[in-house]
Amino acid sequence: MALTKDERINVLNIGLMLLSCAAAFIMPFEVFLFAYAFMGPLHYLTEISWLHDRQYFAKGKYDFLVLLVIGIILTVWDLASIYKWWPFNNEENMDMARDWNIYQKLLFIAFFSGLIVAFVKNHLLKIAGIAFVFFISIGIYGQLYNDNIAESGQEGMLTMLLTSFVPTLIHVYVFTGFFMLFGALKSRSSSGIWSVVVFVICPLLLFMLFRETSFVPVTPYGKEAYGNALSGEGFFGLNKEILDRFFDQKITIPATITTNEQYRQFYNTEWSNLVFHSSTGILVTRFIAFAYTYHYLNWFSKTEIIRWHKVPKARFIVVIVIWLVSLGLYLYNYKVGLQWLFFLSFTHVLLEFPLNFVSIAGIGKELNAISKNGFKPPVLAKAK
């Protein structure tokens, strides 16, 4: 029996998952770096274009500006820290800037503002809600938060999830899963449900199979592009955070280390060994490589959603030109590409927040309908 259009798309996506999974097994670091540089910029641009045509799934026409402005501020803040602009131009100002907790506050505001603009239509209620979130963020990330950090040396779990994982793995894996599940439930697609099942199984396979096998060790270029424990650039910090928080990987400084230079060298070497060469470090990167690679492939497989043939020609040309420039930056220097594409990569995450909440609400709505009418197409369920 011939497959329906929906079934063909879901079979294609299962194939793309298995392909992403196999690539992540073989060469996780380089596969992730390639996917992020080659497919990432085109994904940001086409998704922002798609979201724009759908009013960013917000209730108001200009609601997205809240998220866009936050993206601009965070980009300037990030570039200021890299290029030592004010307030990162001297030690005194840097200490002051850290106490402001700008990154934490703005991500908190963006996340919950995305929830508000997705469901609140009344302008006054919307403004009041965002203002409330703003003042809550000041309360949470004020002096008490700084004191707790100074005492414990670590952020709380909620803050860590919001700042480290929502813009990265939660965005590319969890929210992608929600979007897939919502689509499958809404269309009552059995093949869509199977694609979600495979999506959940793939990370389990990545952690369970070939645990002690490194098929292709990370290359010198991969290490350089990935960053290190001291630079604060690249993706190294994400792996380090996962290994520290979820796998209890720690560095013990020996008593023989007495100088700051010795400490830095030892700390960086030990963490590099954990991230690039330990079995746990490689398993973690396999999952990261799979999550990002399939996140992009899943998006580009949905031609009916992107509707390339409907995009205005002028916008299409701009998208292609920016994508080609982005590739040039990554080829010139991977870290330069990361720095100057921070705005696109980060802002597309923020602009997607309303869609994420709409998808989660949609899953609840569809599950409720299925509990009442069974797993039938919506039209048949209503006819009953």
What is the structural class? Answer: mainly alpha
Question: Which bin fits the share of residues in helices?
Answer: over 70%
Strand content range: under 5%
Radius of gyration: 22 Å
Cα shape: globular
The stretches of 5 or more residues where confidence is low (pLDDT under 50) are none
Cα end-to-end separation: 28 Å
The number of distinct β-strands equals 0
* Main pleated-sheet profile: none
Q: Secondary-structure element order, as H and E?
A: HHHHHHHHHHHHHHHHHHHH
Q: Please report the number of helical segments.
A: 20
Average pLDDT level: 91
Give a topology summary.
Layout: H1 5-26, H2 28-38, H3 40-53, H4 64-83, H5 91-100, H6 102-119, H7 123-140, H8 143-152, H9 157-186, H10 190-208, H11 220-226, H12 236-247, H13 260-276, H14 279-301, H15 303-306, H16 313-332, H17 334-340, H18 342-351, H19 353-373, H20 378-383
Helix pairs in contact: 1-2, 1-10, 1-14, 2-14, 3-16, 3-18, 4-6, 4-18, 6-7, 6-19, 9-10, 9-14, 9-19, 10-14, 12-14, 16-17
